[in-house]
Amino acid sequence: MLNELVGLQGSFWILPLMAVAMFVSLCFIEGVVTKRPIGEKPPRELVTDLSYWLISPVLRQISRVLLAGMLLLAAAALGQDDAPRMVKGFGPLAQLPFAATVVIALIVSDLSSYWEHRLMHRVPFLWRFHAIHHSAKTIRWSTIGRVHPINEIINYVAGVVPCLLIGLPLASILTMIPVMMWWAVLAHSDFKWSFGRLGRVFVSPVFHRWHHTHSQEGGDSNFANVLSLWDRVFGSYYLPKDKAPQVFGLDVDDMPDGYVGQLLYPFNGGRQKDEAVVMSSRPAPERSS
Fold first, then answer.
1. Burial of 8 (0-12, 13-18, 19+ CB in 10 A)
2. What sections of 166-238 are H helices per DSSP?
3. 44-62 pLDDT, tens per residue?
4. Mean pLDDT, residues 92-120 taken together
5. Where are the domains of the chain?
6. Is the pTM of this model over 0.85?
């Protein structure tokens, strides 16, 4: 089971190289789309984001190992030698066609991640780690990688464990994860796409940019990762008409610019991490037509 959950062991050490190749490719694509001069010096935020992109793939592998260990301990506590049912799936969901189980995995994982995301904004201890993701003052595709290692592990566990517990096969979950990752990259991009009527169901770049504004502008909203309908159902949907977010980042900005400083930030005495967690002053949500 450990090998099943970890996966890609043979290519473990080339993951950072793959991340760099992807990073450079996306930089090039963004430069072409936005017509940014090729020789332009990259902003400091982009350089910091690259550090996160280098380490995040390795952290995802570590998260899989930790998750496998927890499941094996749970199986031992139940008197089993391993947990094969957790890998192959069990119950009625495991009998469905593979494509159906992938769709169900995405829906379940996205719902679980929605509530985990809201807790990150509400619990001071969790906000200390999640605030790093919100420290970016320019929202672009690379911002998706700006996640503290502790936050990264919590995200992975919150998205995977509920799927395993209801009997979905591990193969379906591992197929779903890249889909959610690439959707998150799209949602953080600087493209002015709202998806029209489909934006009522799916998270668009325009929709998610409001999540990264200051709380008084609407930042305490739009927690969904793929399906914006969760925000509509649970009252956190915010997408005003004929208006675009202007200011991004933390309400109280005491975040270091560099990678190492940001890793240490949750453990220092920064005041914003406890004061900004309760963001109750946002405007009343306006539903778009």
1. middle
2. 170-187, 205-209, 229-233
3. 788 788 888 777 767 667 7
4. 95
5. 2-275
6. no
